[in-house]
């Protein structure tokens, strides 16, 4: 079994929110720290996936991080950069904008993990398509992602749909809620 590393996807521009979503406080600490704590029991190490500006702001931090290595504006940048950092590891990926996420969902993914598949992910909130921003990506998927980017394909969801993956029903679909703007944040009921 491959080593399982954690990856908090925090490198987006957060333009709709107007501030860094990974630093929003929902559980008494910045979201990226909360998610790091959630992932630790499942992973060898947990990294923050950050852009170059965030990396510069974190110079005095001891937190392990992977800086986006590609010139693409897609969450795929963080996942691909993680595989570039360690191609032998599997990556437990979590988007920073899921404040309702709990260990219940992480347990379901870990238990539903199928090492023979390219990735293990939940069905999305509509129960139809794969949810690409919360899942376990196996090492064999790394080369496929690299090839896709070379060919100009940047949608992680489409790449999951085109490959042999394990789809798991989320135990609580509410935990997959993405909070991307101030209106959604104001309506959020923790």
TrEMBL record:
Q: Any transmembrane segments, and where? A: none
EC number of the protein: 2.7.7.77
Q: Name one GO cellular component term.
A: cytoplasm
GO BP term, pick one? Mo-molybdopterin cofactor biosynthetic process
- Name the chemical reaction catalysed here: Mo-molybdopterin + GTP + H(+) = Mo-molybdopterin guanine dinucleotide + diphosphate
Alphabetized, the UniProt keywords read: Cytoplasm, GTP-binding, Magnesium, Metal-binding, Molybdenum cofactor biosynthesis, Nucleotide-binding, Transferase
- Give the MobA-like NTP transferase domain ranges: 6-163
- Statement: the UniProt record of this protein carries the keyword Phosphoprotein: no
Binding-site positions, Mg(2+): 97
User: Which top-level group of life is the source organism from?
Assistant: Bacteria
The record's GO molecular-function terms, alphabetically, read: GTP binding; metal ion binding; molybdenum cofactor guanylyltransferase activity
- Pfam families recorded: NTP_transf_3
Output the InterPro entries linked to this UniProt entry: MobA-like_NTP_Trfase, Molybde_CF_guanTrfase, Nucleotide-diphossugar_trans
CDD domains assigned: MobA (cd02503)
Instruction: Print the domain comment field.
Output: The N-terminal domain determines nucleotide recognition and specific binding, while the C-terminal domain determines the specific binding to the target protein.
Its family remark reads: Belongs to the MobA family.
HAMAP family of this UniProt entry?
MobA (MF_00316)
Q: State the name under which the record lists this protein.
A: Probable molybdenum cofactor guanylyltransferase
Q: Name the gene that codes for it.
A: mobA
């Amino acid at each position: 079994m491959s080593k399982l590393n954690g990856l908090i996807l925090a490198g987006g521009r957060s333009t709709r929110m107007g501030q860094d979503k990974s630093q929003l406080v929902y559980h008494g600490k910045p979201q990226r720290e909360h998610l790091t704590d959630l992932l630790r029991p499942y992973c060898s190490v947990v990294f923050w996936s950050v852009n170059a500006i965030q990396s510069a702001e974190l110079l005095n931090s001891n937190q392990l991080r992977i800086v986006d290595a590609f010139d693409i504006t897609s969450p795929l940048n963080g996942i691909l950069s993680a595989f570039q950092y360690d191609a032998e590891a599997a990556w437990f990926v979590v988007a920073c904008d899921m404040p309702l996420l709990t260990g219940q969902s992480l347990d379901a993914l870990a238990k539903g993990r199928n090492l023979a598949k390219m990735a293990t992910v939940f069905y999305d909130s509509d129960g139809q398509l794969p949810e690409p921003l919360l899942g376990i990506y196996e090492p064999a998927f790394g080369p496929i992602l690299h090839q896709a980017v070379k060919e100009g394909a940047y949608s992680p969801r489409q790449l999951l749909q085109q490959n042999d993956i394990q789809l798991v029903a989320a135990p609580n679909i509410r935990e997959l809620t993405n909070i991307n703007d101030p209106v959604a944040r104001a309506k959020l009921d923790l």
